[in-house]
Predict the structure.
Amino acid sequence: MTAPQVPDRLLIRTALPAEVGAIAGLHVRARSTYYPDGLPPAEFDWREAWRESIERPRGQVLCAVEEGRIVAVASFRVPDGGRADTVKLFQFHVDPDHWRRGIGTALHAACVEQWVADGHRAAVLDVHVDNRRAQDFYARQGWFPDPELPPAEGDHHLDLRYTVRPDTAGETPATP
């Protein structure tokens, strides 16, 4: 199998507040794919949540842009009260129309590059138990089940961990 080719015109950059609508729409399209009965109804305002993430002084939102359209987005920061050397990947979404083209891998590499630059030693995330596609993607990138947070009975999320190593930025690190 050959590796997917990332489009030549893919740009990864910091998201802008004016893009919150496009980002929230992409988020809903991506999340809708892994819920067995479709996206559960919620009174949560995703536009406002994304606006806060973009404007948060100590957080970062990166987006992948292709031909002027946002096709993937990632949001990360050190969680409130968390260890300064550990960053949490809160959101990571690729537009379903752009899956299997290398865009997620390129965006993940950009995240790791930023984590290295910021001096983080580890990254953590939680992924929905029904989202096998994301779990497989994260495993290919070098994420592994967090030994400090084993799954609890009835939990709908799995906690994963990634070892950030400045000497291997851009490479898939070995799992422990």
